[in-house]
Amino acid sequence: MPKYDKMAYASADEMIFGSAKNPVKYGRDFTVGGGYVYPELVPHPRPGTESTKKTLVKEYEKMVTDVLDRCVGIGIPGIQIELEHVYQMTKNPEWGGEIAAATKHLQEDYFRKYGLKSAIRATVADYRKPDEEDIRNSVALENQLKTFETSAAGGADNLSIESVGGKEISDYTIVRQDIRGTLFGIGVLGSLDMEFMWKKIVAIADKYGATPGGDTNCAQANVAMFMAGGFQDRSVPHTFAALTRAIAAARSLVAYEQGAKGPSKDCGYEDVIIKSITGNPISMEGKTCACAHSDLLGNLVGACCDLWSNEAVEYHDMFGGTTVAVFAEILGYDVSLMNTAIELGKAKDLQQMMIHSDKYRDTHGFILCPENAYEIGKAIVANNTSYYARARAAAIKSGELMLGDSKLQISAFEKESLESAMRTLESLPDKEEDFISECTDIYKKLIPGFTLANYGL
Amino acid sequence: MATVANYANIFVRYDLIGSGEAKGVKVSNKDSAMQKVLDCVLEGDSDNIAAAVNEALASKDPMTVINDGLIRGMNEVSRLWDEGEYYLPQAIVASDAMLQGLDICEKKLGKALEKKGTVITHTAEGDIHDLGQKIVNALLRANGYNVVDLGKDVPVDEVVAAVKEHKPVMVTGTALMTTTMTAFERISKRLVKDSNYVPFVCGGGAVSLEYVSGYELGIFGKDASEAPGMANDAVNGLSWSQLREKWNN
Amino acid sequence: MGQTGIALDLGTSGFRGQAIDLERKEIIATVLTARHPLPGANVMDHLNFAIEAGLETAHGVVIETVNQVISTLGIPKEDITRLAVCGNPIQLSLFEGIEIRDLAYAGERKKKLMGIVPPNRDAKKLAASDIDGLFLPPGVGVYIPAAVKHEIGADALAMMAQSGLLENRDIALVTDYGTNAEMALKIGDRIITGSCAAGPALEGQHIEFGMLAAPGAVHDIEAEKVGFRCYVLNQNMISEPGDLVDITAGTVLETGAVGVAGITGTGVISILYEGMAANLIRLPQIKTPQKKIHLGKDVAFSEHDITEAGKAIGAIRAGFITLAAEAGIELEDIKTAYMAGASGTYVNARKALQVGLVPPGAQKVYQVGNTSLAMARDIVLDPEKLWELQDLARALRANHCMFGDSQVFERAYLLELSFWGEGMPWEQYHKFSRMYKLPRLIEPYGEPEIIRLYERDIPDLGCRGVSYIDIVGKPCQVRFDGCTGCGACVEKCPEKALQLLPEQQPTILIRPDRCNGTACKRCEINCPKKVFEFALIPFIS
Ligand code: B12
Ligand code: SF4
Ligand code: SF4
After folding, report:
1. What is the mean pLDDT of residues C306-332?
2. Do B182 and B132 fall into the same domain?
């Protein structure tokens, strides 16, 4: 059941990068949302190195060392490193634990020698298969939970996940621009699965004194955003992807209702909306994640971030050093600019620049600029009768915002698709149980393997 | 809160180009008369092209009007069409407007412009379906070719005679009826007999790659938009068999 | 019994005959053939066959089948007094055994060059003995109605005479939704005719999984709560709810009584309509993961099919525009539409209107059924009719619009090609339409009144009912020198028209009625010994 019924901030204007209502302190003297922005660097091992534990641990040691070296080299005050698990690190819980320990060891070294502040996020791979197995009782789940434990024991400060509940539905519906199914898959099933998962993750974090971080709708809303792609792509309308994002906000919020504290996961573009509701710090990525994927809001997403990330960069050599070092440097200078603005009392000005760079570039930036994100947040808390009701409200609000601002230009094709989705959204039943039974009838037929039991229904 | 008056230097909404909401035209000319010429070509405005060209000719020499106005505009139209921002009718009206302008410039110049080459086009003997041919004509002309348009329902003899007379770099044929396409094979035989190995591009709803590959000189034209590229290759000295190799494989 | 008349409709997809008691003016019996006896799937194929195999051969095969139909009707020959036929000019000329080459070539120059003189296609009363091979007493009267122009035949005349168009006082337009797409616009006393040669896509041909109406053919799809229901023709050619399918993926959600084998022309229209309504078709693309509208595992509708259907629909819409321009009216002035031909009768008229196949301003749409047989019947009952129709044909000749010479048609069609093939947006379409000063294409009228004149193609089958001829015409045998009997030809034939007979010397049995003819020739192409020669097949004994 939804919990949040009010906004953490009195207005969008209050929201700014570097500060959150509820800062989080962990790691080696590392505070997130306490006034300044830090980089979060995500290194990715080269293919092949995951074949044995030994080679993978070695790879991580090299990567982490390169990152920490560069921080010291150019004077970055602090950094978070995310261990975004490749499948093997979760499948073999001791691997994840050992890599966390190795990273912690190196970070402690640099903290001792140089005073470089640092923290570790461990993001466990959610490799459950909702259309093939009982996701509340599978080997995969068992391994994932074990890996959370080994990671926390090994020294991870922040426990996160990109959970996949409802993905079997959204995989089908997004490519078909079926908004009803997308709302069902993300807003209802995704939320229910998160409730289940996050109860367990928070318990583990508490047991080890780690911080439960956050979740992201990478598996769904990001899929829609990537498929919508750039200006030349027409496979999924950008307006549709934006609706999906608004729905995702209502869903990713569940982590915090179950006890997560943030900072949130970097690729959850919906996090601005969540910050406006929870006041918890968020990690974001934009132009700096071009190494992993392209988006249309490279500057704007930074407007309220507390950590600034690169999503994932594979370990390779570049002229300027290894990729992880190069990206640490890029992130470092970006946050240094933000922190300079804070020190000069110009943070709001810089924020305005970030916003205006992308607010009207694309629908995604438009709904995620702080003032619109705040409006969507309000729609979510005002409709907290069910996961469904608030996700639907978020979608409708974002649609209204897109249709209501003439400066946001949308092509006829995009507009038609948005209007058609809005008609569907308006026509849906009001009660969650009615919606669930309607959708169950439909998607049981369309999607082999879909079962309500996976969601405790 | 700050507001931005003009986003043009911040980002360009390339996705809106061609949908009537924004323009994808990337060419312009500081001279207002020349700009009018460009606009007329881009808009396919045959009503006003003559006035625009005459106005430009008052201050510019004909070659400049041709190169920087007419041809530049037409190249832009081709680009926009290739990129799916313009549609077929736009390409055709633009080509019409450009040719009208060209006519005026050539008169002023006192001679016809040196063309890239001559192409003979026709619709098969017995066939009246000439839409495909008309598209081919427009595209070839727009690309600087001298097109000898023999029209529709053209007897084999006439095609062969025209080839003798004009010595084209390429001949094209269009046929939409299974009963008429057989004329192509006869044309090919006659040309070969005269040792005239001119590339003969055959297209139209009735003909197929298999059919056209069955006789000498034949190159299958799937889409009218291929015609200018094929002509360019022919001008560059590719033989009919090289053309077939390149375009039909 | 005495005094029996025979009415014959020589259609491109088969012949239909009825025996009529001339005194009691009652239908006695009906016979339908499953196919046309000549190789080929459309009139052009029939023409090609006639040119390649010779007019005599083609005429012979047609008459052989007419004899077959008459004998299946079961009327003693001596009781037959009259025979009336109706059909398009190609079929009627083949029946009569007269020049057909003028129909095979469109260009006048070529015709002149070949010395082709168009024969007289006015109304005629002949004697059975004038028709070579017709197995009827010599004195039996044979009535052949007139053609207006070579592309507007007696069948089109029938469509005007039988639909009610002539009596209608509103501005009305009648269209035959066949390969030639003949149409006639009536404004007061004036009737303007035209033919836009739409091509066979609306009969399911040139469509990847297209087929003529036959068991297993999907002729309509309808959205249900989950998925789309295919409506399929069963063994008796009656529509039945078939599989429930997910059109965005190849899955069957619920198996219906009849399996899905292919798509008819009306099915194509329905798919286009539903696909656009569901936002899954955005011209010229299909927005599903595999870029196809799926009707189960094996049958799908592709983007290429959109282009093909678009060429046909576009030609018809360009035809409407051209006729309106010719008459000096706007499209919205056309308030009544008649839909003729098999596709016109069975199609979901509301969907056809939305897709663009019906004049957009039509508030009343009549689906009139096949009118050819009805006209043949009328003539048999009252031979005077023949001459009335002759007068009508003469009058119409003056007002025939040659779309081939019409700039309006050319321009309107260009816009249609761009619309269907390149996805040109409506704003552009209208902009050009204004620039070209074409009658404005308005939005289709919301809820027109749809009147089906008959539930079935042939309303009255007669007291003895209907019989079907499945083997149409005569199978023939051929032996090729050098044939090894390898069977490659038999195997590659897509229509199962060939059979290898168990004889000493390899002998091949061919069913001309099943064969696809000129457009196919896979038997020839695939013969490893290159001995299979279509031209050597003795089609008549
Ligand atoms: C439009 C049309 C007409 C128009 C023609 C208008 C005109 N000025 O051309 C009208 C209505 C006048 C017409 C008339 C007839 N038509 Co007509 N017509 C069509 C139709 C619907 C579309 C053809 C078309 O224009 N396509 C669009 C053009 C642009 O395509 P295209 O020429 O193939 O060109 C493309 C490519 O092939 C290629 N290409 C072509 N040439 C070249 C050359 C080069 C160098 C290159 C690179 C590429 C290339 O590029 C183009 C694309 O970019 C087709 C049916 C269909 N669905 O296709 C029937 C069709 C062609 N017609 C047909 C017939 C039989 C006729 C008639 C003889 C019918 C009759 N009952 O008498 C009459 C002729 C009467 C007369 N004497 O006037 C038949 C031919 C059948 C056959 N198998 O032979 C068809 C297939 C319809 C059918 N019945 O099945 N027709
Ligand atoms: S393979 Fe030969 S016999 Fe069979 S349909 Fe084709 S042409 Fe006719
Ligand atoms: S493919 Fe040729 S050789 Fe083989 S059976 Fe047929 S005709 Fe004879």
Report:
1. 96
2. yes
Is the ipTM beyond the 0.95 threshold? no
- Tell me the fold of C476-536: Alpha-Beta Plaits (3.30.70)
Domain assignment present for residue B195? The answer is yes
- Ligand 3 site residues (CB inside 6 A) read C 480, 483-489, 506, 527, 529, 531-532
Label each residue of chain A as H, E or C.
Answer: CCCCCCCCCCCHHHCECCEEEEEEEECECEEEEECCCEEEECEECCCCHHHCHHHHHHHHHHHHHHHHHHHHHHCCCEEEEEEECCHHHHHCHHHHHHHHHHHHHHHHHHHHHHCCEEEEEEEECCCCCCCCCCCCCCHHHHHHHHHHHHHHHHCCCEEEECCCCCHHHHHHHHCCCCHHHHHHHHHHHHHHHHHHHHHHHHHHHHHHCCEEEEECCHHHHHHHHHHHCCCCCCCCCHHHHHHHHHHHHHHHCHHHHCCCCCCCCCCCCCHHHHHHHHCCCCEEECHHHCCCCCCCCCCHHHHHCCEEECCCEECCEECCEEHHHHHHHHHHHHHHHHHHHHHCCCHHHHHHHHHHHHCCCCHHHHHHCHHHHHHHHHHHHHCCCCHHHHHHHHHHHHHHHHHHCCCCCCCHHHHHHHHHHHHHHHHCCCCHHHHHHHHHHHHHHHCCCCCHHHHCC
Shortest alpha-carbon distance between residue C249 and chain A (Å): 9
CA of C198 to the centre of ligand 1 (A): 9
Of C104, C113, C414, the CB nearest to B155: C113
pLDDT at B22: 40
**pLDDT tens per residue across span C464-518:** 988 989 999 999 999 999 999 999 999 999 889 999 998 889 999 999 999 988 8
Q: What is the pLDDT of residues C206-236, one digit of tens each?
A: 899 998 877 899 999 999 989 999 999 988 7
Task: CATH number of the domain at B100, please.
Answer: 1.10.1240.10
Please give the interface size between A and B, counted as residue pairs whose CB atoms are below 8 Å apart.
31
Q: Architecture of domain A12-455 in CATH?
A: Alpha-Beta Barrel (3.20)
- The count of domains in chain B is 2
Quick check: is B3 in a domain? no
Pocket test for ligand 1, best of C47, C116, C150, C151 (most atoms within 8 A of CB): C151
Q: Return the ligand 1 atom nearest residue C403 CA.
A: 12
Among B89, B109, B129, where does a domain finish?
B109
B89 touches chain C (CB under 8 A): yes
- The listed CATH number (3.40.50.460, 3.30.420.10, 3.30.420.480, 3.40.1010.20) that belongs to domain C4-151+374-397+460-469: 3.30.420.480
Residue C455 has pLDDT above 90, yes or no: no
What pLDDT sits at residue B228? 95
Residue C124 in this model has a pLDDT that exceeds 80:
yes
Output the pTM of the full model: 0.84
Do residue B186 and residue B105 come from a single domain? no
Nearest CA in chain A to C293: A176
pLDDT at position A307 is 98
CB contact under 8 A, B10 and A352: no
- Answer whether B16 sits within 8 Å of A409, measured CB to CB: yes
Atom of ligand 2 nearest to the CA of C495: 5
pLDDT digits 0-9 by tens, A126-160: 999 999 999 999 999 999 999 999 999 999 999 99
Chain C residues in contact with chain B using a Cβ-Cβ cutoff of 8 Å: 44-45, 47-48, 51, 104-111, 113, 404, 410, 413-415, 417-418, 421-422, 424-425, 427-428, 432, 435, 518-519
Range of the domain at B192: 118-248
User: Is B7 a domain residue?
Assistant: no
Check whether residue B172 and residue B66 sit in a common domain: no
Whether the pLDDT of residue C22 is over 50: the answer is yes
Ligand 3 atom 2 nearest Cα:
C527
Mutate to test the interface with B, among A411, A415, A416, A417 (most CBs of B within 10 A): A411
For residue B5, being part of any structural domain is answered with no
Domain spans, chain C: 4-151+374-397+460-469, 476-536
User: Mean pLDDT over residues C301-330, rounded?
Assistant: 96
Q: Which residue's C-alpha comes closest to atom 3 of ligand 3? A: C483
